[in-house]
Amino acid sequence: MSKQINVALVGNPNTGKTSVFNNLTGLNQKVGNYPGITVEKKEAIVKLSRNLKAHILDLPGTYSLNATSMDENVVVELLLNKNDKDYPDVVVVVSDIENLKRNLLLFTQIKDLGLPTILAINMADRMDRKGIELDIELLEKRLNTKVNLISAKKNKGFESLKQSIIDYNKISLNPCLDASAIDKDYFDSLKKAYPNQDLYKLWLVITQDVNFGKTNRKRIPSESDFKPKSDSEIKRLQQKETIKRYQFINNTLKETLTKDLALAKGLRATIDRLLIHKVWGYVIFLAILFLIFQAIYDWSTYPMDFIDESFLFLSEFVKQSLPAGMLTNLISEGIIPGIGGIVIFVPQIAFLFLFISILEETGYMSRVVFLMDRIMRKFGMSGKSVVPLVSGTACAIPAVMAARNIESWKERLVTILVVPFTTCSARLPVYLIIISLVIPDERWLGIFNYQAVTLMLLYLLGFVTAVASGWLASKMLKIDFKSYFVVEMPNYKLPIFKNVALTVVEKTKSFVFGAGKIILAISIILWVLASYGPTDKFENAEEIVSSTIDHSEMTAEELETEISSYKLKNSYIGYAGRAIEPAVTPLGYDWKIGIAIISSFAAREVFVGTLATIYSVGSEDEQTIKSRMAAETNPVLGGPLFTFASGISLLLFYAFAMQCMSTLAIVKRETGTWKWPMIQLFGMSGFAYVVALIAFQILK
Amino acid sequence: MMTVANLKKGQKAIIGEMTSQDIPLKLLEMGCLPGNHVELIQIAPFRDPLYLNINDTYLSIRKETAKLINVELIEDE
């Protein structure tokens, strides 16, 4: 019978741990979330030998077992909990050759937990180039373990790493240093109070509660003869522990590692000189931003048009080939367009993550953080807020999640709060159709196209509002915080294609299945609300329309259009739209736009689709909807409904209002309370309403 | 008292006794400990944050944190 063991991969960020995981497991990995939190969990089952399988878990990167973030906490929680089904039989600490010293800190901590701990030193292919020599035999002796040199890039050393995992029970469980020597009395009394517990685990549980306040565990019963220390004494001891570990590491490496310092620097300094230059640094960053926007808004249109047409075709095909009836309508008008509405964003999301993962893999992102920190801090954010704000131009959902690695809670919260102001791609279809209706397609001074300029101004407006509200939020939020800004500046590396591809696939998948569920559900609900009505006016629409209006001059098609628009008016959603009409009239809208706005609270891009349903044009073809919209008249003022005034009012409303339930849900998950998403919902939408109102009243 | 925040570009120093409670533990873990070397590689365009090499690890921290780290300058070699 074959046996299965649990293997945990642990390591510092930027050590290529994920590449090591990819090389060990190939493509059969599974990506999910840890229960209850949105930290990504990557695992895979691999056959090591004929009768041994390994469940390999790629834990989040961490510098030590003193967790300060949700991701890092996952590592500590797992290593402390023997009852966890993933509790490792063996731990592989992945380190990189150039930062061995720092990487060993984590190694010595894990070794103290009494687990078989293998050291895998990655990027061994760089040793010659960097003039590094390592005495493996002596290192193994000092660290009491098996040391493997590997190279994820060149796919070398993995056979012997696998062999070390197979032989895991030959590894000594003794720690390589005695950390309790930092305060002998304290640790002795701790041991006496809980004789059955592993001493280092006890210490971690205690420090964990100090470092990471959210763990309300009761794993250690209180004992009378044990005197707990104050938080500041514990912090002091943690400092001492770190110093003690480094003393051991420094001594060990002095014996085993030689480094030719002159060789180690060259490339970094040269590239840095350019990338963080006080002028060129910003120019290059702007150029890269421009490239990202170009990809998201230009290159993406080709696959997006294709997706759009395919779904229209599919919907039509289902309608033709299935027997007519409620179910067919639900599938062809509710579910298929609903799924299409999600899939259409895949190209943009994929491009976004392609760029972000390349920038992160190469080490460039840390330089951007370095360049932007001072500027972003003026607006209550951190240099690390740049990634969320850039991601926000594709979609706020991954952007809110990207705020996670901002250390200071206040800066992170401000970033999460303002990100939805950046112009996400769901606003684009709304902007495009309204701009084409109300802004003339002419050139100013023969160069600048008014429509293009308007669109650009709207982007700028989104960004400026995000930054300005960041400044405002940081003034208003009374949160005491200390800056824990520490950013590693990794070496420049060429991105590994496999890593980038896997990141893009995973992130896109999690967007489609995460946000997709909500968008799909809403489109089905909308369809139901538009397909049923509270009174029999809806049921008998055909007779009422045929008998009340003179249709002798109409074609069958025109009559059909009249009937469906009468039906919609008397459907549930029609009633809702007319109920809010008094509220939207001062903004220059009618009840139909009112409905489109309500349904947009599911997701903004629904606006165009809803108008298509309302005008029963049958297809989402832009020209058709546009000509219908242009023909609409204003019920109160008379004249065309879509004028410059009402168009601008609508554009401003969409620029500012919080109209995305998926984003609200993700903000709730990331902040742990409904307070912040509610502030966004009412604050942003209220602001949008007031601005749209003022704009219409002035311009009309 | 000289701190990391007073260093000029290219200057090297040795980290002294750590007294402040507000120095993030993460920084210590990355090698910012008494006796280790620190070199100021570069200052960001608006004079903050600072790009350092501490004990062979390259990292950047804000000035407010740098002010908490006491150092002794190594005389120009």
UniProtKB/TrEMBL annotation, chain B:
Segments spanning the bilayer are none
Domain Ferrous iron transporter FeoA-like: residue ranges = 2-73
Cross-referenced Gene3D superfamilies, in alphabetical order? Answer: 2.30.30.90
Coiled-coil region: none
Write the record's keywords in alphabetical order, separated by commas.
Iron
The keyword Iron is annotated on this UniProt entry: yes
Please report the name of this protein according to its UniProt entry: FeoA family protein
Q: Which organism is it from?
A: Psychroflexus lacisalsi
